[in-house]
Design brief:
Helices cover 77% and strands 0% of the residues. By secondary structure, it is mostly helical. The termini are close together. 54% of the residues are buried.
Amino acid sequence: MNTTAPPLAGRREWIGLAVLVLPTLLVSMDLTVLHLAVPALSADLRPSGTQLLWILDVYGFLIAGWLITMGALGDRIGRRRLLLAGGTAFAVASVLAALSSSAELLILSRGLLGIAGATLMPSTLSLIRHMFPDSAQRGVAIGTWMTSFMVGGAIGPLVGGALLERFWWGSAFLLGVPVMMLLLLLGPVLLPEYRAPEAGRLDLVSVLLSLAAVLPGVYGIKQLAEHGVDWSAGAAFLVGLALGVVFVRRQRALRDPLVDLRLFSDRTFSTALTTQTLGVFAMAGTQLFIGQYLQLVVGLSPLQAGLWTLPSTAAGIVGAMLAPAAVRRIRPAAVMGIGLLLSAVGFAAMTQVTPDSGLTLLISAFVVLSVGLGPTMTLTTDMMVGSAPPERAGAASAISETGSEFGLSMGLAVIGSVGTAVYGTQANDAVPEGVPARAAEAARETLGGAVNAARTLPEGLAEQLLAGTRAAFTSGLHATAAIGCAIAVALAAVAVPRLRHVPATGKAAEPGEPTDEPDEPATSTQRATT
């Protein structure tokens, strides 16, 4: 048995981590930075409704589609090389987006940003795996990485709003240029290069199949979330699923597959992936309703609503950063179990929100929910990256990110649709007599339609319409929160026992304690402590 402890990271690695979190922060921020710029952008470029949706969605859409390919490519050509190439492409695409003179050019630029962003996420995470071989240090590094991702998504609208106060809408994209210039300057000095020692060739057919499977699948899910069930969404999803089966069969037959399917036979990897994906799934649908509740029920502006979500972001960061310290003494499964049950309490509290309960109950529940899920997101990411062999860390990182993207899209589509269906059912009875037919139809479809319709009605009738539809919307929020609560409890009951073999990072597993099954490779935590 190898008793040599892994080397500890030094000052250079920790400074290198600071360099790695910058592109992660930026990639996450670009997902949300345009939310408050839509009115100014629309007035300038005059996009159609379909074009506007593509401007907002194509970035995340192509990140999801290219993650697997870029993760495998980094394992083959070098992760630092891919990171620096992607950083260069991201800076160029940022300038193109900022200077776009038409909706078509902005869609193209956002698409290029998405492809470039897909190189950055798995490269940064797999480099962390290489730079921090000690499991305890790696947990802290991944917690920091996860924090930067959460902060980027939270501050995107705020940064966009601040820039809009002084500059044109394109200025939001120019933030990427100095950040990537700093990466290109410091990366070659502070970041090590790593590639798989016996890297095989990149199978182009597998690349095409992965894109052909992921992109229609994500598109179908997004269509389902935005427009409900229709034939185009169903067809796209089924096409993606069928091509996914073909992709998997090809990987099994290849000597150098794009995705090593043996990763999924590792109990630690597969359980962590499932837990993270379902955790994001549970959170996504509820978050969608929280944002609308703050604006359409409480009456906050988009900027005010964004500011009121910051406490939950801070709570998630606290949970993510406390997890590495906790698992020095406590098994990761126990920490995750406590976090998942705490998030279930937050979800449950959210089912008690009423249209008149104000902000305190909702924000408090959101804080508890976020601080509970934070450790789960950090620890599952660490388990996935750490349980993969070093030469497959890029692919493992890409699979982790792809799982999160699918969880987010599916949560918005499935749980969001359930909440919308509950709203529609109750809104049918909430529209009072005397409301014109067109306004009544709009009010039954969405709360936003009800708020717009109320502006055209006499004061008494408008108040009656808003009271009924806001109550219906709150019932939809209750439904999404109840689903989230059930998922969190189920994950605690199923995932925790399956991960109990992973020891705390501060001690080795005791003789006779549960360990991994014999036919599975040892986890990174076990390798670090044996």
